[in-house]
Amino acid sequence: MQPDFDPFDPAFVASPHETWARLRRDRPVARGARWDFWALTRYDDVKAVSADYGTFTSEHGIVVPSNPVSGRRAPLHFDPPEHPRYRRPLNAALADQRVRALEPTIRALVVELLEPMLERGEGEVVRELSSPLTALVFAQFVQLERDRAIELNAHSEAFERAQQELDTETAERENQWLYEACRQLVRERRAEPLDPADDIVSALLRLEKDDEFVAGSVRQLLIAAHVAPTAAIASAVRHLADDVELQQRLRDDAALLPAAVEELLRLYTPNQGFARTARTQAEIRGCPIEAGEQVALVLTAANRDPDVFDEPDEFRLDRPAPHLAFGHGPHKCPGAHVARAELTIVLEELLARTSGIEISGDVGMVPWPLYGPSVLPLRLRRGASDGNRRLPDRMWP
Fold it and tell me: Residue 73 belongs to a domain with what CATH number?
């Protein structure tokens, strides 16, 4: 079957939105090249399949292409009725109340990471801000020391970079390093458990006797907590850098920031390749889906569906927010509160501490199954009132 699009086409990687607009109009159930999968680009289809775990399962992997794994990982590779057993401890650990309590910690990290960039008047957003921030915030939920969190992030970045460059040898080497680091963490928590309300590893160990299963699940959660929010933060900063008027409007009225965050999440949803596998033969918009075939839930495309969002490519602060940036159904992202807090605090501190930000060089983009900048060089002008802002207490000694 002739493919309808190629996820690795350079023009697609740079900006997939033109392709998604064409496919939403002409081929809403599209065939992707390379891995022979189906891509759903319309909001209603993505939402329906996300909730229909009876027909479309997560048991065989949740991304296109599927990653080989030694067994299923919780909770992403489980559907109801098994799924809630593993999801409940994550919901508790990542609850809105817990995230709110961590906001001063997140703010301290953001300010710490921003300060060297402000001092120089320039910086690279992904390497210096969004990537280390998301890693250090995740460390709070597994009670990991700062030095270990930084080391873990360096290997996570190396693994993700190797995957993007199709360097299988390096990816596998880094993958094994990450697995062993997660095994070590599991051994420590098995010997000395922490409060499961504060530590995801201890919470999972209360449910499972199989340490390798828990280590694999933590390994998967580590990557999930890193790649998407890292890209989303960089996309949001890029949008502001390109829109001087919006920058100033948000500086003048911080009450607009929550609405801006939701609209930026809609416009720049980082997950393109979330997937399900058909349990049995199915049909979507007259297109037959065979049992065993993968179906990508293209959240990036669904969130610009003109049947749901008027002028979907435009930024609007007054837009209703039924977006699918965090997915839908039982596998809706448990880290949504964390991601929103990270993004909101980054934009709040960046805007408050600058009088202007602008792109200062070439922007690189991450390839499928993600969407967002991999490299974002920025020029920053420190705001006149920045020196009067109180610096938060540092999180770690």
Answer: 1.10.630.10
Tens of each residue's pLDDT in the chain, 397 residues: 789 999 999 999 999 999 999 999 999 999 999 888 999 999 999 999 999 999 999 999 899 987 655 567 889 899 999 999 989 988 999 999 999 999 999 999 999 999 999 999 999 999 999 999 999 999 999 999 999 999 999 999 999 999 888 888 998 999 999 999 999 999 999 999 999 999 999 999 999 999 999 999 999 899 999 999 999 999 999 999 999 999 999 999 999 999 999 999 999 999 998 999 999 999 999 999 999 999 999 999 999 999 999 999 999 999 887 999 999 999 999 999 999 999 999 999 999 999 999 999 999 999 999 999 999 999 999 997 665 555 555 444 3
Instruction: Return the exposure string of 162-187: e unless at least 16 CB atoms fall within 10 Å of the residue's CB, then b.
Output: bbbeeeeeebeebbebbbebbbebbe
Range of the domain at 72: 10-388
Helices (H), 121-243: 125, 131-141, 146-164, 168-191, 200-207, 211-242
> Would you say residue 260 lies in a domain?
yes
Residue 111 lies in a domain: yes
Return the residue matching tokens 């993505």: 46
Q: pTM here?
A: 0.94
Q: Could you give the number of structural domains in the chain?
A: 1
